[in-house]
Amino acid sequence: MGTGMIYLTRRATFSASHYYWNESWPAEKNERVFGPCANRNGHGHNYTLEVTVAGEPDPVTGFVVDLKWLKGAMEREVLAAYDHKHFNLDVPEFKDAIPTTENIAIAVWKRLEPVVNAAGTARLSRIRVYETPEIFAEFRGEA
Amino acid sequence: MKAYFGRRYMLSASHRLHTSALSAEANRTAYGKCNNGNGHGHNYFLEVLVRGNVDRETGMVVDLVELDQTVRSEVLNRFDHANLNLDPMFSDRVPTTENFCRSIFELLQQVLPAGELEHVRVEETENNFFECSSRG
Question: Which domains are present in chain B?
């Protein structure tokens, strides 16, 4: 058909704990900047992840990507590492980075981009991570 | 790296869709039940999306508390539990959600740092919403 790009989004949820702490700052500054998020015992959220890919529908199947494949990729690459885990203690990319919603969106992008690219039919367009229904962050692959 | 931070708020307000540029009959035709003389109200959901570089020290694009304060002082304090038609912004602008969305975008763009506001989205009901974007 070639009528233009379609953006396809798949949603998933996961639950994880985290805290915000910058090791190069004194405790007082961490507590002032991060407020209750600096509690070293951590706290948790039910996160909602939205993964958007962009591409042209396949002329035969009408799919941009197979949703079942995308669901599997999200479970394998992201949820297996994040769901029911502690971001600061269990997830390698947050050994040295603060697991803010912004950084989680960037980390999900880094996990999924090579997989989506390797599949060859679509490109990763946007990662949106909701920490609560009222707070979210997005990454669109911009430098 | 550039990322986006979004925040959702709720505000309740009343409005009446009516323009003096049209006859009573034409208003009823154009706006239907939204033209009801005594107005009606909605719980509006407001989504504010800002962009910026992720700060290396904090991992954050903006300070959530500061953003909340800005939205509260510029938008929520002004419009929550108010009649939109009586606000000066709507003295010559019909308070459709299109215009409400644009008004909120303009109010926030005036006070947020240049280039920070990406879009404003206003959901009038669960089934309709409007966006005003810095990308035109």
Answer: 2-133 (3.30.479.10)
**E strand segments, A19-134:** 43-55, 85-86, 123-132
Which SS3 state, helix, strand or coil, does residue B49 take? strand
> At B119, which helix (H) or strand (E)?
strand B117-125
Is the CB of B3 inside 8 Å of chain A's CB atoms? yes
Q: Is residue A127 part of a domain?
A: yes
Question: What is the per-residue pLDDT across A92-128, written as a single tens digit (0 to 9) for each?
Answer: 999 999 999 999 999 999 999 999 999 988 999 999 9
pLDDT at residue A1, as a whole number: 43
Residue A1 lies in a domain: no
Q: Do A106 and B7 touch (CB under 8 A)?
A: no
> Does residue B7 belong to the interface with chain A, where contact is any CB pair within 8 Å?
yes
Question: Residue B38 pLDDT > 90, yes or no?
Answer: yes
* A134 Cβ under 8 Å from any chain B Cβ: yes
**Domain range holding A69?**
6-139
Condensed to tens digits (0 to 9), the pLDDT of residues A20-68 reads 999 999 999 999 999 999 999 999 999 999 999 999 999 898 899 999 9
Q: Any idea of the CA torsion for A47, A48, A54, A60, to the nearest 10 degrees?
A: 130
Query: Is A28 assigned a catalytic role?
Result: no
Instruction: Determine contact, residues A90/A18, Cβ cutoff 8 Å.
Output: no
| A23 belongs to a structural domain | yes
Query: Residue A86: beta bridge partners?
Result: A17
The CATH number given to whatever domain includes residue A51 is: 3.30.479.10
